[in-house]
From TrEMBL:
Keywords: DNA damage, DNA repair, Endonuclease, Hydrolase, Nuclease. One of its GO terms (molecular function) is endonuclease activity. Belongs to the DNA mismatch repair MutL/HexB family. Residues 214-338 form the DNA mismatch repair protein S5 domain. This is DNA mismatch repair protein MutL. The gene is mutL. The lineage of its organism: Archaea, Methanobacteriati, Methanobacteriota, Stenosarchaea group, Halobacteria. This protein is involved in the repair of mismatches in DNA. It is required for dam-dependent methyl-directed DNA mismatch repair. May act as a 'molecular matchmaker', a protein that promotes the formation of a stable complex between two or more DNA-binding proteins in an ATP-dependent manner without itself being part of a final effector complex. GO terms for biological process: mismatch repair.
């Protein structure tokens, strides 16, 4: 008998990189965290620039409240956040998008991360912090505009297995595009732009109008075919849904991919089978098989009626009563289509 064991503790670096893979799956996941941080910082403009689908470079620049040197140093440490104090805050529901306090540290442990930040109203000049593979490389004063610019270069440079799993530039960029699009549509009062390999893909004005944001993102043809959905209280059949609002497209404006069905619950971009089925039910046979409308739909439900933890990354949600939600969404969208003469009433429904 021997007391030797093959079980051993992993070193800190390895643990950090494994954890990183759980949060940062691909460039789009990093983009999501950075854009959420910018929105949480009260930005009025968020400019996202990526190169090679985000695999070479991701840059998110905002005009939010910015950070002091001490803030920047703290921000890249593990489990640091300015957004909650403890578990009670988690349970009471937080108003901010991110709250786990791990995004920057995690992204920085699998990339070369540079943060330049300057607080909005203070006399701090600005700070540049370079973080590589989980370590602070340098912190220096720098001249920079108020707000924050985060650059993520060479994502997964130190996790070759992960890097190998990246798809083509086109595919990775499609994921990035979808993430930025969802935030742009959900925040029409923020000017959001996306640039890929030097080409501007879209830029919203931040004037606060969903229709205008949608025009900037999807173009005139789609924007001109959208009709409003607006239902609450007595308009809805019984169920947890308190209100539904947004825009849905004329049935003839459709695509073969679900990616243009953007749904939000209590302000968060989510996917849900019940919501999607409700929408598709309303269109019935007006859409061909495997065709999907353009949708931007905001739903409000009491926090305790929804389970957001089904899949933390994919943001899939379930409701206590999925059937009721399906019926309510169906009714809200059907009403909008009927009001605009886009459904024959009594037409066969799929
Ligand atoms: P979390 O967002 O969960 O708090 P992060 O690692 O994403 O964790 O960010 C850590 C902290 O860094 C945030 O709580 C915030 O105080 C600060 N921070 C990050 N990004 C920005 C930004 N763009 N503008 C201002 N502060 C930021
Ligand atoms: Mg965050």
């Amino acid at each position: 008998m021997t007391d030797k064991t093959t079980i051993h503790e992993l070193d800190e670096d390895t643990v950090a990189r494994i954890a990183a893979g759980e949060v940062v799956e691909r460039p789009a996941s990093a983009v999501k965290e950075l854009v959420e941080n910018s929105l949480d910082a009260g930005a009025e403009s968020v400019d996202v620039t990526v190169e090679e689908g985000g695999t070479e470079l991701i840059r998110v620049a905002d005009d939010g409240r910015g950070m002091t040197e001490a803030d920047v140093r703290a921000a890249v440490r593990q489990h640091t956040t300015s957004k909650i104090e403890g578990l009670e805050d988690l349970e009471s529901g937080v108003g901010t998008l991110g709250f786990r306090g791990e995004a920057l540290h995690t992204i920085g442990s699998v990339s070369r991360l540079t943060i330049r930040s300057r607080p909005r109203d203070g006399d701090d000049a600005g700070t540049e912090l370079v973080f590589e593979g989980g370590d602070v490389v340098s912190v220096e004063p720098t001249g920079c505009p108020e707000g924050t610019i985060v650059e993520v270069a060479d994502l997964f440079y130190n996790t070759p297995a992960r890097r190998k799993f990246l798809k083509t530039t086109a595919t990775e960029f499609a994921h990035v595009n979808r993430v930025v699009t969802r935030y742009a549509l959900a925040n029409p009062d923020v000017a959001v732009s996306l640039t890929h390999d030097g080409r501007e893909v879209f830029a919203t004005t931040g004037q606060g109008d969903l229709q205008a944001a949608l025009l900037s993102v999807y173009g005139r043809e789609v924007a001109s075919s959208m009709i409003p959905v607006e239902a609450d209280g007595d308009d809805l059949p019984p169920g947890p849904l308190e209100s539904a609002s947004g825009l849905v497209s004329h049935p003839e404006t459709n695509r073969s991919s679900r990616e243009y069905v953007a749904t939000y619950v209590n302000g968060r971009a989510v996917t849900s089978d019940a919501i999607r089925e409700g929408i598709m039910g309303a269109y019935g046979t007006q859409l061909g098989s495997d065709r999907y409308p353009f949708v931007v739909c905001f739903l409000d439900v009491p926090g305790d009626a929804v389970d957001v933890n089904v899949h933390p990354r994919k943001r899939e949600v379930r409701f206590d009563d999925d059937d009721a939600v399906r019926r309510q969404v169906d009714a809200a969208v059907e009403r909008a289509l009927l009001d605009h003469g886009l459904l024959r009433s009594g037409a066969p429904r799929g």
